[in-house]
Specification:
Strand 2 and strand 3 form a beta hairpin. It contains three helices and five strands; from the N terminus they run E-E-E-H-H-H-E-E. Helices cover about 25% and strands about 25% of the residues. It has a three-stranded antiparallel sheet. The protein is globular and about 45 Å long.
């Protein structure tokens, strides 16, 4: 088993990047990883667009190996952008601050209620 792109056989899997369900028959990217609960390997599933941001090298290698996807050119552009900007894969979402309690990680100033903020994943 290796990294793969395949249609989802059911809608049970969630994307490891955006935490949203992957719809049945939607293309998904599977990253091969060692099984944390037993022997062998398993896959972590991603939407193909989420994989372009989170795992750009792996997705680009898979697309260049001959796997056909409808919007491969757009996915390759996203993957190249993610490789050029190392902080881009850490972005989880952009939303409005529900309260004024959050602080900026860089300058430590309070983020006002209702202001846009970028939520980063801590690894």
């Amino acid at each position: 088993m290796a990294d793969i792109i395949e249609p989802a056989p059911s809608a049970r899997a969630k994307c490891r990047a955006c935490r949203q369900p992957i719809a049945k028959a939607e293309l998904r990217f599977g990253e091969q990883v060692p099984n944390p609960y037993g022997e062998g390997d398993t896959h972590f599933w991603y939407h193909v667009r989420c994989a372009a941001l989170r795992l750009p090298e792996k997705l680009e290698a898979l697309l260049n190996s001959g796997v056909t996807v409808d919007d491969a050119d757009q996915l390759l552009k996203i993957a190249q952008l993610a490789q050029q900007n190392p902080l881009l894969p850490k972005v989880m979402r952009v939303d409005r601050a529900p309260t004024a309690r959050a602080r900026c990680q860089r300058c430590r100033k309070a983020i006002d209620k209702g202001m846009l903020r970028v939520v980063l994943e801590r690894m």
